[in-house]
Specification:
homodimer; 417 residues; alpha/beta; four-stranded antiparallel β-sheet; globular; binds pyridoxal-5'-phosphate; kynureninase activity (chains A, B)
Chain lengths: 417, 417
């Protein structure tokens, strides 16, 4: 199909989600294709933070733990998030970081397996998984000294081959952070269960990007970020979910007072709270939680089918435009073309990917760069339009055609990209 | 000594720290004696949060990781806090929660001991320690299954007797959360080292309340809260410190990408960063960190000797006034009278402590209640005056003399106190 900017504008007029753009404060003269790294600012968030800081903290002080509902925020926000994950109330809490929640989920899963299948010592993940997932597994294995090992799926070892009767736990990202590859959660979980393993899903690049169906897929545990597609703000606390069947059976070692059945009895011995609260540990950053709630409140209003349809329409458009209009340049698509295998971002390799991305940013198109050579573009249906995609690709084309990316300042590496 | 309100007013006029009260927004008609649970709002904090939310997040978005210095906040804030702890730059980071940092410090200490003294299997703490400290130890022991056990100091087992050649790690609170008892950190650490144990200190009720001297005391690890005497805001991230001698030797299992030597190389294998950064794990709540910085900026200006002198003067005054003016009531001081053994809060037992505290709160004197029967009063020298102490005790006296605490509504228990 041949695209034009006019056709993009018409598609925008017909877009049922177009109104959501007004719910966010977006910077002028910017096409923001990095909402999969840090989401944007919901319009009510500043005011909400002022309330929390001035009235709840400044004026009501310690009483706000009760009167402003601070104490219940992790479960309340978890329940707000649940529908987006295919979860029921009481199954999710918002707390800590994704990295830490990975540790808790992994510990809980290993402990279940220690009882059911003590001989299983393999934790299976993917070489191309986000590094923190692998690092948390490595940290646990080293610390436990119980003979666990990390096995990695890669080109040489596909999933079907890697899943055997040694595997205790399978830990995968639903959407790959680099390529955007989307696993079939139900099928993979089924395979894991068939072989006696438990399945943990990292939803960092899935939650808020597409409808997840944790209960439908019969998953065991899940974790994820809220500062990406959920627009919770920089470093907003993460979430963790547990399947109903593990609710009162699971246990995890980061067992602080917030996970205690009666935290204010100040008992000497730990006794876990019923259900999901036992994934809580210590006191949470309330202002950051309150900001996150603003993002969740927007996300909950979105029709998930419309979200997915627009996400696929925009990622299709992006891929087709790049291939049509930047065809002569050494760009290699690493995101699946198949809809059922694609998340909500698009990545291309380019031998000079780093410099090309710096040039894009300097020209108002903000994506990010990921080693090795990957230009990554987050496509967030809530605040991007078809015309944004058109314009972004035009700027990419100009940069590539003119060679303007090849300036010294675009090759200089900063601390973080 | 016989006190009068006039004498209190004169003492306030001579108070070199009196000006600090102006640095905070305090609620009207309230005497806030709970700054050891949740500190107050520094005046610049609201504006700072607006900057972070509107400009750094809303406008600059992902770029702020570099341009606004978000990436360095954990170490930068750690270095700001360091002088209050008797620490040098590069030894402290601000991150996660006190509970989680306890786990990291304990794991790091046990790992050092596993190499030095593998036969030592006792983790020594105190029955009266804050529960989360005990729960984190219990969680780790259960998870490791390496034969560790928790031994608790109490009336039947004093420290000198409990410290033997089975002890791997001693974990104590510098100031007890309930009684305000202050350990001699240098002497206790010395005893621990003499017997071959490592010492971890929980500074939750010490940091910002009195000058701590971690390096002077030769401590091994320390953790603590920032939302109490440091006025960081509700749930502001905690800190963790490591002694220079362990800097590049220690290791901990919550080894997320933020603790990696090169987090953005996306390597498959974890390789720890040099120094204190290896205590970092995942992405931190930036807005809550920025608010904390406002509290730290005030705390850093305070002369630590003046702080300690005023803290002791006010806690002395509080104790003497209660004993003089509420003498006929069944109040039992559980805070040490000795200056060198006292932190910055004062606690009394009263058989109806819960109801008495609710009546105090209803009358504008905000302290808190801790099981069993304990009325706890935080004495924060930065924003309390001698006259506040006088007035608070007068209100306590009226409540006790009139018996007005004995109303049904003051006996009703909420979720959190
Ligand atoms: C000694 C001590 N440690 C830890 C905590 C709290 O830990 P967290 O911030 O992880 O909830 C407190 C809270 O009062 C405390 O008094
Ligand atoms: C799959 C995945 N997991 C985890 C994270 C981040 O974890 P944390 O929030 O603990 O830093 C990311 C960040 O991009 C991610 O892509």
């Amino acid at each position: 199909m041949k695209h034009t900017r006019e056709a993009c504008l018409i598609a925008d007029q017909q877009d049922p989600l177009a109104g959501f753009r007004q719910r966010f404060d977006l910077p002028a003269n910017t096409i923001y294709l990095d909402g999969n790294s840090l989401g944007v600012l919901p319009k009510g968030a500043l005011e909400r933070s002022q309330q929390v800081i001035t009235r709840e903290w400044g004026h009501d002080l310690i009483r706000s733990w009760n009167t402003a509902g601070w104490f219940d925020m992790p479960t309340r926000l978890g329940d707000k998030l649940a529908p987006l994950l295919g979860a029921d109330p009481g199954e999710t809490v918002v707390t800590d970081t994704t990295s830490l929640n990975l540790f808790k989920a992994l510990a809980a899963a290993l402990r279940i397996q220690r009882q059911a299948h003590p001989e299983r010592k393999v934790i299976l993940s993917e070489r191309d998984n986000f590094p923190t997932d692998l690092y948390m597994i490595q940290g646990m294995i080293e610390f436990l000294q119980q003979g666990y090992e990390l096995r990695l799926i890669d080109e040489a070892l596909p999933l079907e081959q890697a899943l055997d009767d040694k595997v205790a736990v399978l830990l995968l990202s639903h959407v790959n952070y680099r390529t955007g590859y989307l696993y079939d959660m139900a099928a993979v979980t089924h395979s894991a269960h068939q072989c006696g393993a438990l399945a943990i899903w990292d939803l960092a690049h899935a939650a808020g990007a597409l409808q997840v169906d944790l209960n439908g897929a019969d998953a065991d545990f899940a974790v994820g970020c809220t500062y990406k597609y959920l627009n919770g703000g920089p470093g907003s606390p993460a979430f963790i979910w547990v399947a109903p069947r593990h609710q009162n059976a699971f246990w995890q070692p980061l067992s602080g007072w917030w996970g205690h059945a009666k935290p204010f009895e100040m008992a000497t011995d730990y006794a876990p709270a019923q259900g999901i609260r036992r994934f809580l540990c210590g006191t949470q950053p309330i202002v950051s939680l309150a900001l996150l709630e603003c993002g969740l409140d927007v996300a909950r209003e979105v029709d998930s089918q419309q979200l997915r349809a627009k996400s696929l329409a925009l990622t299709d458009l992006f891929i087709e435009l790049v291939e049509q209009r930047c065809g002569g340049h050494p760009l290699t698509l690493i995101t699946p073309r198949e809809h059922v295998r694609r998340g909500s971002h698009v990545s291309f390799r380019h031998p000079q990917g780093f410099a090309v991305m710096q040039a894009l940013i300097a020209n108002g198109v903000i994506g990010d760069y990921r080693e090795p050579e990957v230009l990554r573009f987050g496509v967030t249906p809530l605040y991007l339009s078809h015309a944004d995609i058109w314009d972004a690709v035009e700027i990419l084309r100009e940069i590539l055609d003119s060679g303007s990316w090849d300036r010294p300042e675009f090759h200089r590496r900063g601390a973080v990209t």
